[in-house]
């Protein structure tokens, strides 16, 4: 059972993400169920990272992204590959850091309060796309390159926990 402490949000980002990696490993240890791990992982991110209004997953299903476990307001259920920030991350297999979602030409607005977004593609060691990890903030320019690096590292921990 997970009994770790939540990293302090006031730490410098590298230290925050180092602690978050440890907590993610402890939280997901010994469990391989994708839904269970995604649910706990989304909750960990949502309750740990400051200034978020949505944290969760979209999983690839029959050629499109379908909403998975998340924390926040109800979300768009299906997103086409290549569409919006999530679909772009899935199509390119590159993390998308969007400082202002209103400046992203094909942004899909699920929550009008969202101002910035980061989406990390989830790719197995065999190169299979599982889906994406999506985080939204009600603040402009909430995410930067340190967040990209940190979230890519913790997303890898999630993928490793379910990659059979």
Average predicted local confidence, pLDDT = 91
Please give the CATH class: Alpha Beta
The CATH topology, please? Beta-Lactamase
In total, how many beta strands? 6
Distance between the termini: 22 Å
Rg over CA atoms, rounded to whole Å, is 15 Å
CATH architecture: 2-Layer Sandwich
The low-confidence runs, each spanning 5 or more residues with pLDDT under 50, are none
Q: Portion of residues in helices? A: 25-40%
Beta-strand content estimate = 15-25%
For the largest beta-sheet, the strand count, sense and barrel status come to: 6 strands, antiparallel
Assign an overall shape.
globular
How are the strands ordered across the major sheet? 3-2-1-6-5-4
InterPro entries: FRMsr_CS, GAF, GAF-like_dom_sf, Phosphatase_reg/MetRdx
Organism: Paraburkholderia edwinii
Protein name: GAF domain-containing protein
Family: Belongs to the free Met sulfoxide reductase family.
Write structural notes for this entry.
The protein has a 6-stranded antiparallel beta sheet, sandwiched between helices. By secondary structure, it is an alpha+beta fold. The protein contains 4 helices and 6 strands. The protein has a single domain (13-162), classed as 2-Layer Sandwich (Beta-Lactamase). Helix 1 (13-28) runs antiparallel to helix 2 (34-48) and helix 1 (13-28) runs parallel beside helix 4. It has helices at residues 13-28, 34-48, 84-92, 145-162; strands at residues 54-61, 64-72, 78-80, 96-98, 116-123, 129-137.
